[in-house]
Amino acid sequence: MRTSRWTGAAARLALLVILTLAALTAPPPSAWLRTAAPAGEERVTPRVARVWPVGARPRVLRGWEPPATAYGRGHRGVDLAAAPGTPVRAVAAGRVSFAGRVAGRGVVSVALTGTGDPALRTTYEPVLASVAEGAEVSAGEVIGTVEATGSHCAAPCAHWGLLRADTYLDPLALLPPWLLRGGPSRLLPVLGVPVPE
Predict the structure, then answer these.
(1) For residues 162 and 121, is the Cβ–Cβ distance under 8 A?
(2) What would the CATH number be for the domain defined by 34-174?
(3) What's the farthest any 2 CA atoms get from each other in the chain?
(4) Which residues are CB-contacts of 132 (< 8 A; sequence separation ≥ 6)?
């Protein structure tokens, strides 16, 4: 009877050790993720985002669909469900490279700090900017609000894009896995394990 008790306790302890080691050896949030690039060219996207641009975990209305050619059809970003007036946040630290209107839509673009040369740039539209070109922003800082007009979505949304130079990338690649899942991984307490004698 006592042997099976120890065996169960040892198994639970071993599982706890394995889970702890897995959590400690997992790649950091800034691990690099490979993304699509022009033929013959490989790109990596650093997972530098610390927040979603809108909300805590917005619904993706339309995902990234890279065009086959520079002027081909596709979707050069992701559309996130967001009502007009929703605060728009910088997903990572950087410098505002543009804040103004393009084709009648409010656009804010942020060059992300520490993402190589040329730096990655995130774009947000339609956004009524609350920051000016050249401003330094931190992750999670409000850079504007979703405008009521100018969206290409059927439902209210914010379009979030990502570029390196003139190449469009998937902005979701900036998000670490725990942010895509909705929160960091947590170890559960081990209950009912007897203390070894």
Answers:
(1) yes
(2) 2.70.70.10
(3) 77
(4) 96, 99
Can you tell me which residue has the tokens 């992300």? 112
pLDDT at 122 over 90: yes
pLDDT confidence of 40, banded at 50, 70, 90? very low
User: CATH 2.70.70.10: which residues of the chain?
Assistant: 34-174
Note if the bond before 126 is cis, omega within 30 degrees.
yes
The Cα 60–Cα 35 span in angstroms is: 19
Instruction: Name 180's Cβ contacts closer than 8 Å, sequence gap at least 6.
Output: 172
CA distances from 120 to 133, 163, 196 (A): 16, 6, 53
Name, in order, each residue with C-beta under 8 angstroms of 148's C-beta and a sequence gap of 6 or more. Answer: 84, 85
Neighbouring CB atoms inside 10 A of 197's CB total 5
Residues 6+ apart with CB under 8 A from 113: 92, 93, 94, 95, 119
> What is the average per-residue pLDDT within 43-67?
88
In the structure encoding, which two tokens stand for residue 63, read together? 């995902």
Tokens of 137: 């922003």
Among candidates 187, 142, 154, 189, which has minimal Cα distance to 61? 154
> Quick check: helix, strand or coil at residue 23?
helix
**Residue 119 burial (CB < 10 Å; 0-12/13-18/19+)?**
middle
